[in-house]
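Researcher: I've been going back and forth with a colleague about how Transferase might be arranged in three dimensions. Neither of us has a model we trust, so I'd like an independent prediction. The organism is Microbacterium limosum, in case that matters for your notes. Sequence below.
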Amino acid sequence: MGKNYVDIERDNGETLRYRKHVNGRGLIAHGAKVHASAFVETGAYVEPGAQVAAGARILRGAWVESDAFVGRDALVEEHAHIGRGAAIGPGARIGVRTHVGDHARVASGALIGDDETIADGQAVATDRRGLWLAA
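Model: Here is an independent structure prediction for Transferase. You can compare it with whatever you and your colleague have in mind.
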């Protein structure tokens, strides 16, 4: 039986240990909290201090940075990037290759399309069609 963790060295020489999440085999850094019912697909990363709530899905190639929060039943699609300290509300959908900046806030149920950029600190809400609303 193989090991259930991997050590990755950062550019600054620091080594971080990641464990493979039981549901999807994505990599969860020591110090991150990911609910057992969340799905973190192989090739996705959740960094130290980040939290992923029950039922959330983090797909292949997505990256959730330190101290970010992904709410219950939220979806972070392939190759999306959730910045440091950002918060994704429950039921929100973050599209493919979308970048959510540091400390940005995405409202509950928001639908953010593919290849979008949400600026650092920006707060975003959408209507049910995914059209951005003034926040």
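Researcher: What would you highlight for our discussion?
Model: I'd start with this: The CA atoms of residues 84 and 102 lie 5 Å apart. After that, consider the following. The chain has no helices and 20 strands.
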